[in-house]
Amino acid sequence: MAAALADGRPVVALESTIIAHGLPPPANLEVGRALEAAVQEAGAVPATIGVIDGTPCVGLSDAELARLATGRAVAKLADRDLGPAAVARGDGATSVSATLALAAAAGIRVMATGGIGGVHRGAGSSWDVSADLCALRRYPLLVVAAGVKSVLDVPATVERLETLGVPVVGYRTHRLAGFLVVDGGVDLDWSVGSPGEAAALLRAHLAARSDPGGLLLANPIDPAHALDRGRHDRALTEALGDLARSGVAAKAATPFLLAALDRATDGASVAVNRTLVLANARLAAAIAAAG
Ligand code: PSU
Ligand code: MN
After folding, report:
1. How far apart are the CA of 22 and the centre of ligand 1, in A?
2. Tell me: the pLDDT tens digits for 87-99?
3. Which pLDDT tens digit goes with each residue over 195-241?
4. Which residue, among 217, 221, 216, has the nearest Cα to 279 in the 3D structure?
5. Alpha carbons 184 and 199: distance in angstroms, whole number
6. Mind listing the domains of the chain with CATH numbers?
7. Residue nearest atom 15 in ligand 1 by C-alpha distance
8. Which of 44, 1, 4, 5 is nearest to 283 (CA)?
């Protein structure tokens, strides 16, 4: 991976929290491997990022990926956790924010995930806003995601991204992608239509400001594979009810909600999540290759 970067070959960063905490076993390891294969097939080098025995790894081996997918004591790491995790010498899966921090330090400019974190419902009193948002402000990468996870307060997340100065650009659409469903319910000012245009967007973004930070490219799921809107909304109501009754909060909230959606849809949400994250990895690879 380091050699690939040094040679100027296209590299795509992939996160490991979606593997360790976002998807159930055994689908999680299978998806982790499929993401790397998808990036390779699309002409780029995958760098799945995580922390092994406290050491950040930009480009996990297959054994390390399996360790994060199956381990019991794998911490969920945001960017602020990287120092403490190094001292504790434990294993950790990197969320979008920690993945961006390590990818930026390695010189990677493109990353893929499923749906980014953001403002949680009820954040007006809980103040639960994902570190993903400040990380998008901070680290100069283009992040391909199917928008914002639909369990969140999506319009509030879009407002925060505006305040933070993070561009949100639709891929072949002027509507925000809706994670498991096609439409996220928010109009976007900007759109690009091809990997080449997205690569040009990244270059222009990095050139336009002295301290550019990142940008979000929102890639909607193929309508043929999306979760049916009614089924999604019913499952979401159930999942949010489960969360409220459970008392689960803070960093456990997102994994809890994704698992609750999985239960409420008899596994359909996991299949859709797999499809959209693979599509994002393919698009990210095409953008990196076009850059
Ligand atoms: N996208 C997915 N599934 C996931 C995530 C993203 O399709 O599990 C993870 C990412 O690692 C993201 C995290 O950074 O969820 C957000 O967690 P929180 O809301 O606690 O910041
Ligand atoms: Mn949080």
Report:
1. 7
2. 999 999 999 999 9
3. 999 999 999 999 999 999 999 999 999 999 999 999 999 999 999 99
4. 221
5. 24
6. 2-290 (3.40.1790.10)
7. 117
8. 44
